[in-house]
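I hope you will forgive my troubling you with a question about protein structure. The matter concerns a single protein, recorded as an amino acid sequence and a row of backbone structure tokens. Please examine both parts with care and let me know of anything in them that strikes you as inconsistent. Thank you for your consideration; the sequence and its tokens are set out here:
***
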Amino acid sequence: MADTDRVRWDDKYAGRPSGPPALPAVFTGYTDAIPMTGHALDVACGAGSAAVWLAERGLTVWGVDVSAVAIEQARELADRHAVSDRCRFSVADLDHGLPPGPPVEMILCHRFRDPRLYPAMVDRLTPGGLLAISVLSEAGSQPGFFRAAAGELDVAFADLQALAAGEGDGQAWLLARVKGDRR
């Protein structure tokens, strides 16, 4: 990511107070599918509200984001909610791929889209691991560089077992498991 993009995201987060721990609204109806133990990776975690929510649920979470400002806010949020022992946050330029690490039981990716990372996300999940991804979409909106084409998530993650999905109003999302035994 260009330095100008990193600065833009830092500026965006610097002017925004961090919110309470919360799962992205698109997934709130599916909390029963979200594991309560194991490890999770929050891709483009922002200020950490979802990562801290997952840690409060019982997961050990690694959140990554390009913005150092957002990462600092995420660490502070984890401290305030007494889950810093289950949260790790790192600045990472996802243009270089997912940071290396062990397999995880869950990956959350909310409002970040880079189709080059889709195969790496699947590869990082354990058998039975859960992918929760939402992206901006052209479905019900105007085309744009950061928007997924209609059906993109279904095609990209066709090898996973879809639990729920939706597309419209400028958003596409998918909740899916890696086929195989649950760990």
